[in-house]
């Protein structure tokens, strides 16, 4: 089988290899009574075999209501952990065990406990892009789509917001609460600059600029619309405009092309690639269905407290 990686970490296949692997995966999925979940940033060939495509929390929530014994989570480690927390009765598999989120690693449970001692009486809002241990030390979780709503829902006037400083600063625009943003960031979104926006607008002068709230404040100020990955998809679908510059990881362009025919979507930067998201490939998905490994589990003591933070958000 012809199969190798290019310099960006993306897998390259012959077309017949893709078809053969996808057919084998779908057969194994039926045999193992499995659900395949794929994040919006996954490779096109991975998205094409998924039962559900979405952002991390959409996928974890979808798994709760879907029938199946096994969840194959095509994403990064914290996403599979969230699925295991919400679906403890299912086997949760992460095909690429080294697929991590660097931003999630920018805050630890010990650091967060120390921050609480420095700011007694503050609420802790944690982005879903965190480890189970950090969720367990938080009052409530949020997503990029509902961060503002979550921040405004807590009773406290001061909020420790972990780990994404850019998302925390974005939420601060829409609240009277004092936000204490952590010094974490997304390696992809934090790289965008106003110069990138200017160049993209020069290349596509009629296109609207849509960016993710994980972007820096000066990039958000240049945008026409700010939304989560799912929000960007909904906006492109509903907006009568036909051209868009997309300021999030470029994996979403595949889904936009499939679900928004007739719309033209351009990447804000060709370099907006999350290498960790691209670690999942068809061979790894096939192999994880054969072996039912590597399995992601969360100790129940941690899972129970983390589940509380997630369910507090869902209750909104």
Task: Please provide a brief summary of the model.
This protein is of the alpha/beta class and 316 residues long. Helix content is 41%, strand content 17%.
* CATH class bucket of the largest domain: Alpha Beta
CATH topology of the largest domain: Rossmann fold
Strand coverage percent:
15-25%
Based on CA atoms alone, the radius of gyration comes out at 19 Å
What would you give as the CATH superfamily of the largest domain? NadA-like
Separation of the first and last Cα atoms: 49 Å
How would you portray this structure in words?
The protein has 316 residues and is α/β, with parallel strands linked by helices. It folds into 3 domains: 113 residues, Rossmann fold, CATH 3.40.50.10800; 83 residues, NadA-like (Rossmann fold, 3-Layer(aba) Sandwich); 79 residues, Rossmann fold (3-Layer(aba) Sandwich). The strands form 4 sheets. The chain has a 4-stranded parallel β-sheet, sandwiched between helices. A 4-stranded parallel β-sheet has the order 8-7-9-10, sandwiched between helices. A 4-stranded parallel β-sheet has the order 12-11-13-14, with helices on both faces. Helix 1 runs parallel beside helix 13 and helix 4 crosses helix 14. The N and C termini lie far apart (49 Å).
Secondary-structure topology with pairs:
Blueprint: E1 3-5, E2 11-13, H1 15-31, E3 34-39, H2 44-47, E4 52-54, H3 56-65, E5 70-74, H4 77-86, E6 91-93, H5 109-118, E7 123-127, H6 132-136, E8 140-142, H7 147-153, E9 158-162, H8 165-172, E10 178-181, H9 194-203, E11 208-211, H10 217-220, E12 225-226, H11 229-238, E13 243-247, H12 252-259, E14 264-267, H13 282-291, H14 300-314
Parallel strand pairs: 3-4, 3-5, 5-6, 7-8, 7-9, 9-10, 11-12, 11-13, 13-14
Antiparallel strand pairs: 1-2
């Amino acid at each position: 089988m012809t199969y190798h990686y290019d310099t960006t970490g993306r897998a390259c296949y012959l077309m017949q290899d893709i078809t053969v692997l996808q057919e084998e995966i779908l057969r194994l999925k039926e045999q193992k009574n499995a659900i395949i979940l794929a994040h919006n940033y996954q490779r096109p060939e991975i998205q094409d075999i998924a039962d559900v495509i979405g952002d991390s929390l959409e996928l974890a929530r979808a798994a709760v209501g879907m029938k199946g014994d096994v969840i194959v989570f095509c994403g990064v480690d914290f996403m599979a952990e969230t699925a295991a927390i919400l679906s403890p009765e299912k086997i949760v598999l992460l095909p690429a065990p080294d697929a991590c989120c660097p931003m999630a690693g920018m805050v630890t449970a010990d650091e967060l406990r120390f921050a609480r001692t420095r700011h007694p009486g503050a609420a802790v809002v944690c982005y879903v892009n965190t480890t189970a241990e950090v969720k367990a030390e938080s009052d409530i979780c949020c997503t990029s789509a509902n961060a503002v709503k979550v921040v405004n829902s807590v009773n406290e006037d001061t909020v420790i917001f972990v780990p994404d400083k850019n998302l925390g600063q974005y939420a601060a625009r829409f609240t009277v609460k004092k936000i204490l943003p952590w010094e974490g960031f997304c390696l992809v979104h934090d790289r965008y600059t106003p110069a990138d926006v200017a160049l993209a607008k020069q290349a596509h002068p009629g296109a609207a600029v849509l960016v993710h709230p994980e972007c820096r404040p000066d990039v958000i100020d240049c945008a026409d619309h700010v939304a989560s990955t799912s929000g960007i998809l909904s906006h492109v679908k509903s907006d009568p405009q036909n051209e868009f510059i997309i300021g999030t990881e470029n994996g979403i362009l595949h889904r936009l092309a499939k679900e928004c025919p007739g719309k033209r979507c351009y990447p804000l930067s060709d370099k907006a690639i999350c290498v960790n998201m691209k670690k999942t490939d068809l061979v790894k998905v096939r192999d994880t269905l054969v072996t039912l490994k590597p399995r992601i589990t969360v100790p129940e003591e941690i899972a129970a407290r983390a589940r509380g933070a997630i369910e507090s958000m869902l209750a909104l």
